[in-house]
Write a structure and sequence with these properties.
With 293 residues, this protein is of the alpha+beta class. It contains four helices and ten strands, in the order αααββαββββββββ. The protein is rod-shaped.
Length: 293
């Protein structure tokens, strides 16, 4: 291949173009790929170096920050140590006082323990005494309840025993009591006024029984008979040889129903019984019977 050299530059260009045109295409492509790879590697290395530098910078800043915090912490520790030393010195001046305070506290604690033990013992004693008294009261209440039940039963029996009968004037009487308990039942019923008496035979005159006067004249314990004088409305009525339990009847002024005397117990020169009078006065009563009835 021939060429006419004109100038040196032109000769070189002509040679390269001739050489390039003579190389295969894949070689050219290979050079391009290699160049691109080298360029990528160079860029990647640069990026890694930049990232590493940045990481080192961050680490250095953090290290500096930690160092600053450490300095502050050390400063605080030094301050606390100084304060502790001062406090220790101050405490050292009052060790005797602290020892005295501890001793006093121990003494107070022991005294309190003794006082608590004594108080617990007293409380236990009070509880035991209270339990005993409660037991006694419970027993007494039980006994009282039993007595009340017995009394109630006696009252029920007394109610059934109370009877009515015809008096010595032929008038139907009210309920008749035959002992003190039955008299109390009559009082409780309140149907008539009841005046219990205990007469003694004497010449001293009649005894007051409620609104009237009664004198015991004679007592026959063998036949359960007696004789009395009744003084009412300024009149004296003799009730002779009357029987125990028999209603002695008589009228007083202003009473609609008769007064009644019942003797339920006789002994030597003594008679026990009661006077029964109506609750209110009504029309004038019939004439009193003659003495001796």
């Amino acid at each position: 291949m021939s060429s006419t050299p004109n100038t040196p530059g032109e000769t070189t260009t002509t040679y390269i173009e001739t050489a390039a045109s003579s190389l295969p295409r894949w070689v050219t492509l290979l050079f391009v790929v290699a160049f691109a790879l080298v360029a990528y590697l160079l860029y990647a290395g640069y990026a890694d170096r930049q990232a590493a530098r940045k990481g080192m910078d961050d680490a250095e800043r953090k290290t500096q920050a930690l160092a600053t915090e450490l300095d502050k912490t050390n400063s605080r520790i030094a301050d606390l140590k100084g304060q502790l030393d001062v406090t220790s010195q101050k405490l050292g001046l009052t060790q005797d006082e602290l020892a005295q305070a501890r001793s006093l506290a121990q003494t107070i604690k022991k005294d309190q323990q003794k006082s608590d033990a004594k108080l617990r013992s007293e409380i236990a004693g009070v509880q035991a005494d209270t339990s005993t008294k409660i037991g006694e009261v419970t027993t007494e209440l039980s006994g009282t309840k039993s007595e009340a039940d017995a009394t109630k039963a006696d009252l029920e029996v007394t109610k059934t025993k109370l009877q009515s009968t015809v008096g010595d004037l032929g008038v139907q009487s009210g309920l008749i009591a035959r002992n003190h308990d039955e008299v109390e039942e009559l009082k409780r019923r309140g149907e008539r006024d009841i005046f219990e008496f205990d007469l003694t035979k004497s010449n001293a005159g009649p005894q007051h029984v409620g609104p009237i006067q009664v004198q015991l004249k004679k007592v026959d314990t063998k036949h359960y008979r007696y004789t009395v004088n009744v003084v009412a409305d300024d009149k004296t009525i003799e009730k002779k040889d009357k029987t125990v339990g028999e209603p002695i009847q008589f009228y007083v002024k202003g009473a609609r129903a008769p007064y009644e005397i019942v003797v339920f117990d006789l002994s030597k020169d003594q008679a026990k019984g009661y006077l029964s009078t109506p609750k209110s006065a009504g029309a004038a009563p019939p004439a009193s019977p003659a003495p001796g009835n």
